[in-house]
Design a protein that fits this description.
about 400 residues, 12 helices
Length: about 400
């Protein structure tokens, strides 16, 4: 009996290399990793079953709201098997850990229920930069790329015989993830003909404690998003690399700004809503619990006072001189999370560099930090301003 063996040399993805949706992996794997966007009736029963199982968990441990992004975030990281190295830290509540995993699984089903009638929906994994924190740098697999996850949305009515624009949409929250609470915005964008990718970059919730603790605010998370954009362009030949837009709110606004400052040639347009932009200033007006998320040993590991330069390195305001991409900024005077003073300082810095960009400061708009992500008349009007700005550079239906 004949057998075959092939040893791949340093294939991206480590042990996951042939299970990813990459050019190297696709010929190796039998079949496709993609899941059809259609939602069969059985899935609705599965969702109901999962919800019934989850209700006792949710009743025992309510989930508090996140900071720095406006989406719900887990109070603590959860256990799970993510392909990143283990970091030993304080023990976390197993019940809360289980809740976070269950909530993510439910929300992934919710995405299909809310979006599959208008878009081909998929959840994908791809290799990005290695973990920043590795307790055993000489161990097996040390230095391997980290595997991150992303959601993709392709309009069902899209003409794939023509070049089409791509939109990179980034979730917020110091620790959060891309939830179906954004489905109404995604549907609006799909209706305009946009293909979308949204990465749950390192530090996001729902993928295990190790993934959570790989947070790199203003650092490699920016690369995770950029590499996801590149993955999407490589995967779908109908996408136009000259018509790529990027949008994000709060922490997602920070990642938006860092991407266009670092890779101005890669983006045709950008929108930053209520963006975190100056960590030195921000941590000055936030409380001790918030500051502790940054100085945690698995994150930056130092306070602002101990290393101001490191916090400046992670702040978009440090790089305003690099702006070349058409940019729209929105902020709100009654924002309870990203204070308007922080965004005004960004605007002032851009003006001082003589940069051309557009901005609007809303006066006490209802909703505070969330003001134009709600489903209200003012929010819809504000988003229309965003969509009109994007369309000037992306021409979705051309």
């Amino acid at each position: 009996m004949k057998s075959q063996c092939k040893i791949y040399e340093n294939a991206p993805g480590g042990r996951m290399f042939s299970r990813l949706d990459t050019e190297l992996a696709r010929p190796v794997a039998a079949g496709s990793l993609s899941v059809p966007g259609e939602v069969p009736t059985q899935m609705r029963f599965i969702l109901i079953g999962v919800l019934m199982l989850a209700l006792p968990l949710l009743a025992q441990t309510p989930q508090p709201g996140g900071r720095g992004g406006g989406q719900a975030a887990a109070a603590t990281p959860q256990a799970g098997a993510a392909p990143v190295p283990q970091i030993t830290l304080q023990q976390t509540n197993p019940q809360q850990q289980s809740n976070d995993q269950v909530l993510k699984a439910i929300d992934d089903l919710e995405w299909r229920l809310k979006i599959s009638d208008v878009a081909d929906f998929d959840k994908v994994a791809y290799a990005t930069l290695p973990p920043l924190h590795n307790p055993n740098p000489a161990g097996p697999g040390a230095g391997n790329p980290m595997i991150v996850y992303a959601y993709t949305f392709i309009p069902k009515k899209l003409d794939r015989s023509k070049k089409q624009p791509l939109l990179v949409m980034i979730h917020g929250g110091v620790h959060s993830n891309f939830t179906s609470e954004s489905a109404h915005i995604v549907r609006e964008l799909i209706d305009q003909g946009y293909t979308i990718i949204s990465t749950d970059y390192r530090g996001s919730t729902g993928y295990g404690q190790n993934y959570y603790q790989q947070i790199d605010y203003g650092g490699r998370e920016v690369d995770d998003v950029y590499i996801g954009m590149q993955w999407m362009l490589d995967r779908y030949s109908f996408l136009d690399p000259k018509r790529v837009g990027i949008i994000g709110w709060s922490h997602g606004g920070l990642i938006t700004l860092m991407n266009i400052f670092q890779h101005p040639e890669s983006f045709a347009v950008a929108y930053a809503g209520v963006p975190v932009s100056d960590l030195v200033l921000r941590l000055g007006y936030q409380n001790d619990a918030y500051r502790a998320e940054y100085s945690a040993p698995y994150h930056i590991g130092k306070t602002v006072r101990e290393d101001i330069k490191e916090y400046e390195r992670r702040s978009p305001i440090t790089y305003v001189s690099k702006l070349q991409t058409p940019l729209l900024i929105h902020t709100n005077t009654n924002d309870e999370d990203v204070n308007v003073l922080e965004v005004e300082r960004l605007i002032t810095a851009l003006k001082a560099e003589g940069k051309k960009f557009e901005y609007k400061i809303y006066q006490d708009a209802p909703g505070g930090h969330q003001f134009n992500r709600l489903d209200t008349k003012l929010a819809r009007e504000s988003r229309q301003e965003v969509y009109q700005f994007l369309a000037k550079y992306l021409s979705a239906h051309n």
